[in-house]
């Protein structure tokens, strides 16, 4: 598979570099990167050299596509840029792996746009997946904290540490919580939504009514600007913390004194997308997931600013 990356650099928190790395590790050829200036795009392309990737730098999408002829495009640029690139990829028949949030929740037309993109991608026979990687960690979570029985989930909590502030914390981080709920309890509705806190810390609470039952959700967002940033999640009070050893880039989950080394869920997410694209099947984080979690994300964002 030939791949191009939109946003392989980092201005704030972009992870395009790691997406490119995993496409390459998993056997794809990363041929091009797109950035906002030739200097920044060239710097991003150069730093991919450490993974053995020889990618060309571009500032124009059409030029990148005609030079690299990719089968798939990974979109790792800021959320405000996703919609235009997704549309262009679909029209050209290129598979799309796009970062969460799929579209900015502030977009009034986000859900009709997602429906239109879904219909068009199906006509074109291409695969579209969203990168929301934490569901790929549910197996290791269960190995550490015990089996998650969907019908017995009463509580879910998640702590995330975005570098952005205020409303943007919600669109940045809440997709991870919604993806974990979707993948365990099925598509759902939320009610009893409450948001408290300020620009640098928010607590979001709601009831999630999924296919398998109802649970109380608490998401804590606390702004952190330096690595390693705190991340934890758990069901029914069994909370696992994510620990990263940056020297070896090894990821662990810890829970109640136990520690488990895990595969990077980002690698598993890229791998799932590649398999789906090769078989023209549905990735784990495919259209239904994208549509339902985007709808709930919009509902939560509408509750901000604080009342
Ligand atoms: N799944 C996760 O765990 C996770 C973690 C972090 C971020 N994300 C998601 O990744 C996405 C990007 O994060 P961010 O907003 O923090 O990224 P960022 O670091 O602000 O930007 C990443 C790169 O995007 C490029 N870029 C910006 N505008 C572009 C455009 N119009 N066309 C092409 N490239 C453009 C920039 O390239 P130049 O350097 O050339 O200007 C930049 O290096 C967001 O959707 C975010 O939610 C996901």
Question: Overview of this structure, please?
Answer:
By secondary structure, this protein is an alpha/beta fold. It has two domains: 2-131 and 270-286, 3-Layer(aba) Sandwich (Rossmann fold), CATH 3.40.50.720; 134-263 and 295-302, Dihydrodipicolinate Reductase, domain 2 (2-Layer Sandwich). The protein has nine helices and 14 strands. It has helices spanning 16-25, 38-47, 61-68, 82-91, 110-124, 138-145, 167-185, 265-279, 287-302; strands spanning 2-6, 29-34, 56-58, 72-75, 95-99, 128-131, 155-160, 189-198, 201-210, 213-222, 232-235, 238-245, 250-255, 258-262. The strands form two sheets. Strands 8-9-10-7-11-12-13-14 form an eight-stranded mixed sheet, with helices on one face. The chain has a six-stranded parallel sheet with strand order 3-2-1-4-5-6, with helices on both faces. α2 (38-47) links the parallel β2 and β3. α1 crosses α8. The longest helix has 19 residues, at 167-185. The chain is globular. The N and C termini lie far apart (49 Å). The model has no long low-confidence stretch (mean pLDDT 97). The structure holds NADP nicotinamide-adenine-dinucleotide phosphate (NAP). NADP nicotinamide-adenine-dinucleotide phosphate binds next to α2. Residues 6-7, 9-16, 34-37, 40-41, 76-79, 81, 99-100, 131, 133, 172 line the site of NADP nicotinamide-adenine-dinucleotide phosphate.
């Amino acid at each position: 598979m030939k791949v191009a990356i939109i946003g392989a650099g980092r201005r704030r928190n972009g992870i395009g570099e790691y997406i490119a790395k995993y496409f390459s590790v998993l056997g794809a050829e990363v041929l091009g990167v797109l950035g906002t200036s030739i200097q920044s795009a060239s710097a991003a392309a150069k730093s991919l050299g450490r993974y053995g990737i020889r990618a060309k730098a571009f500032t124009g999408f059409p030029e990148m596509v005609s030079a690299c002829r990719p089968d798939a495009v990974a979109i790792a640029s800021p959320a405000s840029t996703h919609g235009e690139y997704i549309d262009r990829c679909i029209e050209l028949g290129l598979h799309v792996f796009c970062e969460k949030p799929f579209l900015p929740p502030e977009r009034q037309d986000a859900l009709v746009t997602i429906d239109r993109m879904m219909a068009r991608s199906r006509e074109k026979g291409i695969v579209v997946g969203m990168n929301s990687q934490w569901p790929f960690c549910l197996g290791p979570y269960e190995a550490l904290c015990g089996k998650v029985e969907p019908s017995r989930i009463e509580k879910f909590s998640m702590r995330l540490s975005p570098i952005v502030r205020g409303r943007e914390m919600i669109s940045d981080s809440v997709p991870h919580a919604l993806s974990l709920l979707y993948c365990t309890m099925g598509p759902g509705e939320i009610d009893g939504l409450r948001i408290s806190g300020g620009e640098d810390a928010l607590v979001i609470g709601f009831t999630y009514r999924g296919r398998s039952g109802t649970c109380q959700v608490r998401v804590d967002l606390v702004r952190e600007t330096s690595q390693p940033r705190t991340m934890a999640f758990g069901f029914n009070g069994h909370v696992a913390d994510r620990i990263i050893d940056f020297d070896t880039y090894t990821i662990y989950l810890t829970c109640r004194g136990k520690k488990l080394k895990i595969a990077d869920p980002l690698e598993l997410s890229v791998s799932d997308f590649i398999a789906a694209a090769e078989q023209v099947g549905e990735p784990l984080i495919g259209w239904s997931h994208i549509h339902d979690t985007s709808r709930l994300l919009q509902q939560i964002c509408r509750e901000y600013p604080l009342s």
